[in-house]
């Protein structure tokens, strides 16, 4: 099995061959277990709070319509309905298996279940009020109840997810150190998801492959630990919580052997079906009287409709921010001219975009004139990866340039490229032609879409992320693109810029 079809072997420095792992292989792993009763209890408490707030909004605040004197009923009248509402929500969510869903499940799917339960409970209360002929029952209060309940119940789940993500990514609590078996297409897909979605709690610390030579190649900070015959040794010497097997089903006997070895050592093991090396997102299943039928969906990457939506999002956000952007452009032009380093305000550099098309990418000039002539020499001096060099303490940077690079203001003229349709707000960062010349075949996949100003790489560590790992994140973005993913990346970019994480 090959790691990446057509990959070329390139001599590299020792630092490049053995980068620091994401987390040490040896050491204890902190657990993150949530009591089974916690979320049901929170739902009951929040449903009661929502009921009381709805009563307060209707009868005390009287936000929309005043309460007639004969309709001003005490809260005690609603207490039985409040109890029924809470019990129905609890049963509804338990039936939908909401409390058995891991935090890694989609927040949109979880929110849909929450909203559906609230809607059904409100309809039930209305039906009961008609049945008992409760003339003083306020239907407007039920509208308040539905809105407040959804806000509270979804809000606590968003908070819960944020807390889990913080504990996992910042504190290392609840992280499952994962060993991947197999470096083929399915193994790459698993690795991309784990790197792109660190909040899920999977930390890929290394991988093994049935080709020992392939198994010794590091992918960024993910260590190549050798061939499959070294599984026992790796499990004995390393702290691994989970083994994910991504070998093809033709290796059934070998898979069963790996599972047995992991079970004997008390290590959890999961097997990923390769489904003929297809991405499971493109597979749907139908039931023919008990016979499963697998259907294959067409590639979803970027249909015409999706491209239009992405373009509309870009232009809308730029239009909304245009007054502030024009002010910043004016101030920066003045500061760069007053810096005294000479040269123009803008700097244009040839970059490679979608499908290998070249274009001039614009930035605020942050370096001395003719800085490119010294670039290769500095890359060699600092032993940087020439495919994506990040030069620390670059002597070519001007005084004002150091500030605008730290704050990423130098990238704002990229918006000109966005307006021209050469770039998007979100996407893989466009490389230079000399960097592309050093790409392996699999690296070229990051050129399959419109490049962007920010992307998964920037919000996942920026300059601290090695090149191969950056490419895996870019491929994950291309395969899983959606408007909500772009919005998520844009929101995550804001604190990264403010905190200046990974900016040189």
What does this protein structure show overall?
This protein is an alpha/beta fold and 504 residues long. It has three domains: 14-29 and 175-296, Rossmann fold (3-Layer(aba) Sandwich); 38-169, no CATH class; 304-499, no CATH class. The protein is 45% helix and 12% strand. It has 16 helices and eleven strands. It has helices at residues 14-17, 38-61, 79-95, 107-131, 139-169, 185-196, 231-237, 252-264, 304-338, 375-381, 399-406, 414-419, 433-436, 456-459, 467-479, 483-499; strands spanning 176-181, 202-209, 223-227, 242-245, 268-271, 283-288, 291-296, 346-352, 358-364, 424-426, 452-454. The strands form four sheets. Strands 3-2-1-4-5 form a five-stranded parallel sheet, with helices on both faces. A two-stranded antiparallel sheet has the order 6-7. Helix 2 runs antiparallel to helix 3 (79-95), helix 3 runs antiparallel to helix 4 (107-131) and helix 4 (107-131) runs antiparallel to helix 5. The chain starts with 13 loop residues before the first helix and ends in a 5-residue tail after the last helix. Residues 1-30 and 298-302 have low confidence and may be disordered.
């Amino acid at each position: 099995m090959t790691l990446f079809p057509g990959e070329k072997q390139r001599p590299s420095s020792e630092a490049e061959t053995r980068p620091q792992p994401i987390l040490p292989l040896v050491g204890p792993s902190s657990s993150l277990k949530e009591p089974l009763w916690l979320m049901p209890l929170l739902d009951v408490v929040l449903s009661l709070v929502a009921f009381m707030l709805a009563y307060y909004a209707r009868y005390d605040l009287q936000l929309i319509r005043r309460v007639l004197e004969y309709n001003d009923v005490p809260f005690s009248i609603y207490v039985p309905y409040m109890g029924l509402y809470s019990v129905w929500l609890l049963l509804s969510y338990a039936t939908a298996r909401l409390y058995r869903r891991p935090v890694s499940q989609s927040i949109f799917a979880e929110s849909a279940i929450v909203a559906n339960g609230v809607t059904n409970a409100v309809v039930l209360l209305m039906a009961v009020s008609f049945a008992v002929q409760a003339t003083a029952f306020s239907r407007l209060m039920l509208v308040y109840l539905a809105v407040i309940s959804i806000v509270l119940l979804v809000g606590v789940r968003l908070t819960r997810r944020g807390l889990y993500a913080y504990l996992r990514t910042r504190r290392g609590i609840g992280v499952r150190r994962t060993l991947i078996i197999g470096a083929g297409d399915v193994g790459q897909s698993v690795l991309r998801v784990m790197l792109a979605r660190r909040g899920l709690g999977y930390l890929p610390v290394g991988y093994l492959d049935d080709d020992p030579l392939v198994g010794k190649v590091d992918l960024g900070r993910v260590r190549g630990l050798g061939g499959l015959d070294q599984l026992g040794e790796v499990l004995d010497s390393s702290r691994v919580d989970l083994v994910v097997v991504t070998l093809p089903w033709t290796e059934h006997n070998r898979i069963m052997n790996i599972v047995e070895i992991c079970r004997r050592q008390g290590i959890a093991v999961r097997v990923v079906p390769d489904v003929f090396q297809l991405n499971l997102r493109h597979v749907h299943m139908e039931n023919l009287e008990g016979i499963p039928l697998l259907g294959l969906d067409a590639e979803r990457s970027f249909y015409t409709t999706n491209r239009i939506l992405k373009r509309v999002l870009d232009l809308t956000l730029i239009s909304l921010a245009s007054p502030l952007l024009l002010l910043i452009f004016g101030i920066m032009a003045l500061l760069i001219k007053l810096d005294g380093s000479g040269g123009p305000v803008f700097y244009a550099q040839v970059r490679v975009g979608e499908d290998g098309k070249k274009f001039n990418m614009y930035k605020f000039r942050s370096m001395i004139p003719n800085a490119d002539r010294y670039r290769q020499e500095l890359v060699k001096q600092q032993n940087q990866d020439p495919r994506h060099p990040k030069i620390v303490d670059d002597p070519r940077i001007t005084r004002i340039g150091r500030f605008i690079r730290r704050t990423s203001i130098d990238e704002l003229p990229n918006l000109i490229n966005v307006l021209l349709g050469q770039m998007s707000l979100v996407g893989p960062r466009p490389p230079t032609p000399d960097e592309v010349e050093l790409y392996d075949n699999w690296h070229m996949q990051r050129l399959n879409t419109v490049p962007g100003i920010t992307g998964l790489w920037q919000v996942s560590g920026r300059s601290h992320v090695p090149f191969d790992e950056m490419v895996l994140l870019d491929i994950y973005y291309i395969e899983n693109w959606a408007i909500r993913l772009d919005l998520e990346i844009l929101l995550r970019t804001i604190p990264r810029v403010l905190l200046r994480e990974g900016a040189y």
